[in-house]
Amino acid sequence: MNIIVLAKQVPDTHNVGPDAMTAEGTVNRGALPAVFNPEDLNALEQALRLKERYGASITMLTMGLPKAADVLREGVFRGADEGILLTDRALGGADTLATSYSLSQAIRKIRSDRGLSGEDFLILCGRQAIDGDTAQVGPQVAEKLGLPQVTYVEEVLSVEDGVARVRRHIDGGVETVECPLPCLLTVNGSAATCRSRNVKRVMANKHREFTQWGAADIAADPAQIGKAGSPTNVKAVRNIVFKAKESKTLTASDEDIKTLVNELRRVL
Amino acid sequence: MRRINDNFSNRVTDFKTMNTYTDNPEYSFHLHNNDLMERIVELREKNFREAVEYDYAPTDLEDALDSYEKVLEVVGDINANTIAPNAGDVDAEGSHCEDGRVRYAAKTAEDLDATVKAGLCGLTMPRQYGGLNLPFSVYTLANEIISSGDAGFENVWSLQDCIETLYSFGTEEQRRKYIPLVCNGATMSMDLTEPDAGSDLQSVTLKATFSEEDQCWRLNGVKRFITNGDSDLHLVLARSEEGTTDGRGLSMFLFDNRENKRLNGRELTVRRIENKLGIHGSPTCELVFRNARAEIVGDRRLGLIRYVMSLMNGARLGIAAQSVGIQQAAWEEAVAYARDRRQYGKEIMQFPAVFEMIARIKARLDAGRTLLYECAKYVDLYKILEYTSRERQLTPDERKEMKTYSRLADAFTPLAKGMNSEFSNQTTYDTIQIHGGSGYMQEYRCQRLYRDARITSIYEGTTQLQVVAALRYITNGTYLSLIREWDVDDERIKEMIARMEESVETVKSHGSQEVLDICGRSLYEMTAFTVMAVLLRRDSVRAPELFGKSFQVFLNLAQSEVARHADFVSHITPECVGNYKTVTPPSVIPL
Q1: Residues 48 to 67 of A: which have CB under 8 A from any B CB?
Q2: What is the pLDDT of residues B45-103, one digit of tens each?
Q3: d(Cα B553, Cα A32) in Å, to the nearest integer?
Q4: What is the pLDDT of residues A27-60, one digit of tens each?
């Protein structure tokens, strides 16, 4: 089985000090240590369990500054086989749309380079990153690749005969679903925590360098990457203190969604 | 940030950013201030020629030290995030004896799984068998760190070092068969003690008979107080020579319990697990061997006199590390509580009666730890020379070197084990005292540490036996001449040395073995306090920010201890021995 684990290097928001924000209200990345996004570690653990059970080759894929190679190395320390770093100035400043486009292009390249057209292929990633908290990148990557996806995965129960059986975390309980391969799974923080580094792997890979790809390598359309490909604009960042007043529970019905949109319009 | 937590199961403590190794610079100090390390690595890595064959082998000294550092970071991570937070649950649950087998506490199994997945197995074994080829000093650091999280788990984990005995004395075939198993996580135990053979192992009766029919040895009998008694691989001391009654009739055997466990066989069964005061994570078993198929390790008749002695020295260094780990944990608890608890409008840490106690705890911790690593490096060097001697002939200089360090390891092991185990008892006692009434409650971690510490001065040779082991080096001047070599430039320490020397002479002048034995503990402590003062002073010069203050505190303590013992020794004469012997009249002991 071939598994790609998407991972992101994020500022460690668990260790927020007084300098965490700049005067302008943006994240002061220099003051926060960079860490492996926690739910991506949950995804890696699921990948490692599949590797133990079925045998698999795990490739870590990340996009970011050259320093983001640290998460690839961390993944290899814990049991991943390879890592690819997507890094290029042209890819910078991307929102979730441009990010997922770039990642999906990289995944296409991995699949074509390695001749992985078959079913024996799985993409795992964390539900969301702790800096952006959007939970959009995973699902968008799946959409762009035209693959089925399962979100909020707590445990991959089995991957047999081209079908992944997974338990997902839903409101008020869990649900077990089956999904044909190839597919993308986003893994929830409630899944098993990732094992720690393996010392032999640490000693063997501490100086390891990784393949770096730029925009040209993944044949990216310049209009769809970086700032150009990002329709999201941050208008302003404000410090607010949440005060709960009342809450409404909405269903997924068209009517409720319409109500929500209207409500949001009114507030904004 | 240091790891500070308590045992409240409902109190959420975020361990995620904690790492026992990187949070405590003392560990790194001892890794990088080992003046024999260059020599140890040189021999261990055989001029770094394994780097060609193994991707995880270092290419030079700097690379090796960097790898050691990274291994210890993994240990520190697992300890802070898995082992330490699990310790309270492990203590509450304990191990289970079910149908003749041991089932670990759920969290012990989790701890073990974490260490195996992290590859923390076969740490000191050569790479050709799948080991990490780490120096003993590094292994000892790992051991100490794990003990600070859960001393009971440390037992289960560190028994992997029994494999050293098989590596040293087994055949090449046995090495190839068993060492890789341990490097992949097989657990071990050393089955020595029996109901009537505790400190006196010469009385072991478990019977080993060679079966001509099966062409193998068979073990029959009972072992008691066996730590991790349902482990995968057992080293068993048994009587192979019928008709003998002393140590020379004993041989060492290896019993492979894996198949027996898998099939729940009866060749080895666990009759019961002891209900202990502490270290609940470590199952202490009574074992029954019934016709258990075993292999002999090494030569017949050398089981006790050679192999157990080797096993024991390793185990004692392990207990010394375990004791220092407990002291570390207790010190953290004491500091955390003294800062948190307010009385009379301020933190109790502000009161001299409290901060003096905490200062002493830290001073003993730093002093005991430097003694531990001094000992570990001697063990390291002589062991690696011994291993080297099996691959090539040692040069005359190397043979001399081996002899020197073997003797120093022998002399320092009882000091490190005895003193640190006693320190861990005193320190955990003081930690409860600092907690006041709360410390007596089950909710606080300090009471577990107090219970866990209690065994350290008993097993693998009681403190009294450590005194006996050290006494000959005290009377023959080994420690004294070493201290002189260290050339101490400190008036107070010089005075301590003089008093120690004087006391040894006074005791010897009586020419009485009984006087010597009664004064043994005092001479031992005078020696140990003096040695530790010298070592901690050296550390304080190298890293004043870490040890400058604790050295001053320790010096006050050590000097007063030496004076106290000197005073005691001066009053013990052959004439007063009788008082000690008969202070309890025989008539008060009911028959």
Answers
A1: none
A2: 998 999 999 999 999 999 999 999 999 999 999 999 999 999 999 999 999 999 999 99
A3: 38
A4: 676 777 889 999 999 999 999 999 999 999 999 9
User: CA B263 to CA B259: how far, in whole Å?
Assistant: 6
Residue B123 lies in a domain: no
Inter-chain contact A203–B70, Cβ cutoff 8 Å? yes
CB B321 within 8 A of CB B372: yes
CB A203 to CB B77 under 8 A? no
Report chain A residues whose CB lies below 8 A from the CB of B77. Answer: 196-197
Q: B375 CB near a chain A CB, below 8 Å?
A: no
Q: Which residue of B17, B77, B82 is in closest CB contact with A15?
A: B17
CATH number of the domain bearing residue B513: 1.20.120.470
Domain assignment present for residue B355? The answer is no
ipTM comes to: 0.91
H, E, C per residue of B320-376: HHHHHHHHHHHHHHHHHHHHHCEECCEEHHHCHHHHHHHHHHHHHHHHHHHHHHHHH
> What is the predicted pLDDT for the residue at B580?
92
Beta bridge partners of B254: B235, B295
Distance from CA of A197 to the nearest CA of B (A): 6
Q: Specify whether the CB–CB gap between B144 and B321 falls below 8 A.
A: yes
* Pairwise CB contact (< 8 Å): A197 & B17: no
Note down the domain range covering B525: 463-582
Interchain contact A203–B (C-beta under 8 A): yes
Preferred mutation among B12, B117, B145 to probe A, highest tally of A CBs within 10 A? B117
* A112-169: pLDDT as tens digits: 998 887 778 999 999 999 888 889 999 999 999 999 999 999 999 999 999 999 999 9
Confirm or reject contact between B62 and chain A (CB < 8 A).
no
Number of domains present in the structure of chain B:
2
CB A184 within 8 A of CB A138: yes
| B252 within domain boundaries | yes
Does B485 contact A at CB distance below 8 Å?
no
Residues counted in chain A? 268
Closest Cβ–Cβ partner in B14, B55, B74 for A196: B74
Quick: pLDDT tens for B122-137.
Answer: 999 999 999 999 999 9
The β-bridge relationship of strands A2-6 and A121-126 is parallel
CATH number at residue B239: 2.40.110.10
Asked whether the predicted pLDDT for residue B15 surpasses 60, the reply is no
Could you give all domains of chain A from N- to C-terminal order, each with its CATH number?
A: 2-233 (3.40.50.620)
Residue A74 phi, psi (nearest 5): -60, -40
A contacts of B82 (beta carbons < 8 Å) = 196
Which of B260, B286, B301 marks a domain boundary?
Answer: B301
B 78-97: CB under 8 A from A: 78, 81-82
Angle, vertex CA B71, rays to CA B66 and CA B77, nearest 5: 125
Among B275, B301, B327, identify where a domain stops: B301
> B-chain residues within 8 Å CB-CB of A197?
74, 77, 118
Q: State the average pLDDT for chain B.
A: 94
* CB neighbour list of residue A176: distance below 8 Å, 6 or more residues apart: A157, A165, A166, A167, A168
Question: Residues of A numbered 139-198 whose beta carbons fall under 8 angstroms of chain B's beta carbons: which are they?
Answer: 195-198
Over the stretch B503-557, which tens digit does the pLDDT of each residue have? 999 999 999 999 999 999 999 999 999 999 999 999 999 999 999 999 999 999 9
- Would you say residue B245 lies in a domain? yes
- Span B234-241, average pLDDT: 97
Q: Does B118 touch chain A (CB under 8 A)?
A: yes
Q: Which of B59, B70, B81, B184 to mutate to test the interface with A (most CBs of A within 10 A)?
A: B70
